[in-house]
Amino acid sequence: MLREQDLGHRIVVRRVVGFRAGRPVFSDALGELVELTETHLTLTTRTGRLRVPMAQVHRAKRVPATRRPAADAVVELELAADEAWPAPVRARLGDWLLRAADGWTGRANSALPVGDPDRPLPAALDAVERWYADRGQPALVNTPLPLAAPVGAELDKRGWDSRPTVLVQTAPLTALQTPTAGPAGGAAPAADVVELDGGPSDEWLAVAAGRKGGLPEAARHVLTAVDQVRFAHAYADGTLVAVGRGTVTGHGRWLGLSLIEVLPAARGQGHATAVVRALGRWADATGATDAFLQVEQHNAPAVALYRKLGFVTHHTYRTRVAPG
């Protein structure tokens, strides 16, 4: 039967779901084991969470430990995203990453639980809480889903809160250069001039500060401490109308798009599309092949724009917040 060491692994469970003509009827379930008690077990399956009473379990075993391509792809992209948004204070807990940046943005001030923390899951989360407490910061954990579902289940037990779901979306760079039809598609105005610079201007920083609620010194490190980075400034009639940031990370494969922001008076005129395409051309020239971005699921206008540009959801994550 299953043991605590099986938590977080793929499990196949044969369970009794009824009887027919006096004989048991079985059903198989496959998923990640996220909870195991004397009375029941819980799996995260493709269709959601499944709680199975132990009295119904006929047989259960771990699936042979071969890493799934989908899981590998999530880890690869999460590490490329971490490289693109580098926190100035960093530590490791086994394979897990611990990050701090004076509280500026959740991504730069959260643990990233990918890989093996080199200790049981409860002990790993205890260590995360201590690390952030030592820095006078609330403990945050980013949980890429479904990869980190066991972590999320443990945090649920501890009463951690959750911030809104974030979509991690990807697109091939070739898709970013395909014109979209009509003004609603966000086609770039002919008058747009997009300049790409190795550092942000004061105007660029002012727009970013307005969106993110200030820019402490740690924020400048997060924004600039990447080997390949460009800051986009879009002008219409000589006036700054939009900004954006692009990085190339993940062994040169991934263009990371962040802080795509259009000034309020200029919205709905295609300036965001112009910024994305300019950064896409730059990344293509470096040899990158794909782009990624992170957008909150409830940000409907941004999600709609990125869909028209060819982005699809690769996976999601939720930032979990320690109680108190």
Structural summary, described in words:
With 324 residues, the protein is an alpha+beta fold. The protein has three domains: 4-62, SH3 type barrels (Roll), CATH 2.30.30; 70-165, no CATH class; 167-315, 3-Layer(aba) Sandwich (Aminopeptidase), CATH 3.40.630.30. The chain contains eight helices and 16 strands. It has helices spanning 69-84, 121-134, 149-157, 173-176, 202-212, 217-224, 271-286, 300-308, and strands at residues 10-20, 23-36, 40-45, 48-53, 57-62, 89-93, 96-100, 140-145, 161-162, 166-172, 193-197, 229-236, 239-249, 254-262, 290-296, 312-321. Strands 8, 9, 10, 11, 12, 13, 14, 15 and 16 form a nine-stranded mixed sheet that branches. Strands 4-3-2-1-5 form a five-stranded antiparallel sheet. β3 (40-45) and β4 form a beta hairpin. The longest helix is centred in the first third of the chain and has 16 residues, at 69-84. The radius of gyration is 23 Å and the shape is elongated. It starts with 9 loop residues before the first strand and ends with a strand. Residues 181-188 have low confidence and may be disordered. Keywords: Transferase. InterPro entries: Acyl_CoA_acyltransferase, GNAT_dom, Rv0428c-like_C. It comes from Micromonospora zingiberis. This is GNAT family N-acetyltransferase. GO terms for molecular function: acyltransferase activity, transferring groups other than amino-acyl groups.
What keywords describe this structure?
324 residues, alpha+beta, SH3 type barrels, Aminopeptidase, 3 domains, nine-stranded mixed sheet, five-stranded antiparallel sheet, 36% strand
